[in-house]
Amino acid sequence: MLKKILSVLLCVTLLFSVVGCAKTDDEQPSGDSTTTTTTTAPQKQYNIVTGLEDIDLGQPTRPVGVMISNDYWASRPQANIDKADMYVEIETEGAVTRIMAIFGSTSRMPASLTPVRSARTPFIQIANALDLIYVHCGASKAGRQLISRIDISDADEQGNGAYFWRDKQLLQERATEYTLTTGGKEIAELATNRGYATTAQADMPFEFGAQTTAGGNNVTTAQIAVSASETITFKYDATSGVYTKYFGKADSTEKHVSLAGDPIQVNNVVVIYGSKYAENMGSKQTYGFDLESGSGKVMTAGGARDITYKLSSDGFTLYEADGSKVKLNTGKTYLCVADEGFKSDLVLS
Q1: Which domain holds residue 67?
Q2: Which of 294, 271, 291, 267 is nearest to 347 (CA)?
Q3: Of 30, 72, 129, 169, which has the most beta carbons under 10 Å away?
Q4: Could you tell me the pTM of the whole model?
């Protein structure tokens, strides 16, 4: 019996001895003041178009611009138009506008974009200044001449047909010219095969810095005349911090939606003005714009302020009134380019 008691006491003594020697996670060895820090590896890459870290690791970080048709009677709704990181809308001919959908990377592009259309000179100028991979289907005569004179990473369907296709469903509903489709995987392959750089060599026209207001004023609706027959409106929602695009004037309820019904929504709206001129080349009278310098407006965070800009082959920059680079909220941006004659038609409320 005594042996059993002694054995139990020995086990208890050993147990307390072990517990007493153990240190908690918060304890440091005597005399050691060293602390251990852990660094979390980045999960995404920086997107120069949105100011966000939203590009998958290992993917290209060079932006891509895709020409998208915007004829109201034949092109809309466009497949996945809502997915772009930035938009540039400009009149091309006969009061019809076209949109260049810009993505921060080929990996940001959806699997399909429709309808891809031809290149026009003002878009080429902007794509070149921003060092975009420029995706299109053919070009106007003036556009083709410009492309031949500059060093642009061109991704034309003509001569690269393997990277484009006709949407079978849309072929049953639309004219053939409004069904050309491409996607991020195909343009990534095209860029690789052409040996195009995977990182941008130019800055965006703006930089990012949170703005509680855009000049202290309260502007929640921007009605913009982009051409004689194309007026668009952006309506701001303070809760979400985004502007939704509508067709028509400020009282319109018709949103610009994708083929799947998803609306175009952005965090910043910019409009700049330049002198439009007729190119008069080929069978169609297309329009060019003098965009060397000019003025405009920026709308962000429910406010608006005046800006100026400069555009050349060396770059494209938007300027604040004090001469500094325009600061926008992080996220998507919609840029409208319109003729000087429509400046007085801009309605902010």
Answers
A1: 46-348
A2: 271
A3: 129
A4: 0.88
